[in-house]
C-alpha cells in the first residue's frame, strides 16, 4: 500500500505534499511523489529528513493521468491533491484535473487547499 501525491512548486503543491507526508507517517506507509519538472531532489531531501519511505516518479505532463496510473500500480490507499480556486470560465476552457482524479481514482482522494 502507498499514498500518492503530485508535487508542483506552488502553494497548492506544497500543501498537498505536507498533507501526504503527514498521512504517510501516520499510516506508516510509503509515499509515491509524482514530480513534473526538476523538483525531485528537493522533495527527496525533505522526505529523507522526515524519515518518510518514498519514491519520486517523474511526471509525463498530465498530472491527473499520472496520479491515477501510479495509484493503480502502487495499490494506493489514498491520493492527495492540492486545489486552487478557478473562475467558471477557467474551468470551462481548461477542464478540471481535480475532477478527473476524483472520478477516475481507484481509492479515496484527500483534497487540500493552501
**SSE series:** EHEHEHEHHE
Poorly predicted runs:
none
> What CATH architecture do you see?
3-Layer(aba) Sandwich
Helix residue percentage: 40-55%
Q: What is the count of distinct domains?
A: 1
Structural class: alpha/beta
At the fourth level of CATH, the homologous superfamily is HUPs
Which strand order does the major sheet show? 3-2-1-4-5
Distance between the termini: 27 Å
Radius of gyration: 13 Å
Number of helices: 5
Question: Can you tell me the overall shape?
Answer: globular
Q: Look at the structure and give the mean pLDDT.
A: 88
Strand and helix layout:
Blueprint: E1 2-6, H1 11-27, E2 30-35, H2 40-49, E3 54-58, H3 63-73, E4 78-82, H4 88-94, H5 97-104, E5 109-112
Parallel strand pairs: 1-2, 1-4, 2-3, 4-5
Short description:
The chain is α/β, with parallel strands linked by helices and 114 residues long.
Summarize the structure in words.
This is Universal stress protein. Pfam families: Usp (PF00582). Belongs to the universal stress protein A family. The chain is α/β, with parallel strands linked by helices and 114 residues long. The chain has one domain (2-112): Rossmann fold, CATH 3.40.50. It contains five helices and five strands, in the order βαβαβαβααβ. It has helices at residues 11-27, 40-49, 63-73, 88-94, 97-104, and strands at residues 2-6, 30-35, 54-58, 78-82, 109-112. Strands 3-2-1-4-5 form a five-stranded parallel beta sheet, with helices on both faces. Helix 1 (11-27) links the parallel strand 1 and strand 2. The longest helix has 17 residues, at 11-27. The N and C termini lie far apart (27 Å). The model has no long low-confidence stretch (mean pLDDT 88).
Amino acid at each position: 500500500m502507498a499514498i500518492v501525491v503530485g508535487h508542483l512548486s506552488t502553494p497548492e503543491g506544497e500543501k498537498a505534499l505536507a498533507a501526504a507526508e503527514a498521512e504517510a507517517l501516520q499510516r506508516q506507509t510509503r509515499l509515491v511523489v509524482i514530480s513534473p519538472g526538476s523538483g525531485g531532489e528537493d522533495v527527496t531531501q525533505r522526505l529523507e529528513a522526515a524519515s518518510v519511505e518514498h519514491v519520486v516518479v517523474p511526471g509525463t505532463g498530465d498530472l491527473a493521468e499520472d496520479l491515477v496510473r501510479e495509484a493503480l500500480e502502487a495499490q494506493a490507499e489514498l491520493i492527495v491533491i492540492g486545489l486552487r480556486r478557478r473562475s467558471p470560465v477557467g474551468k470551462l476552457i481548461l477542464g478540471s484535473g481535480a475532477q478527473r482524479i476524483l472520478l477516475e481514482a481507484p481509492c479515496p482522494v484527500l483534497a487540500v487547499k493552501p
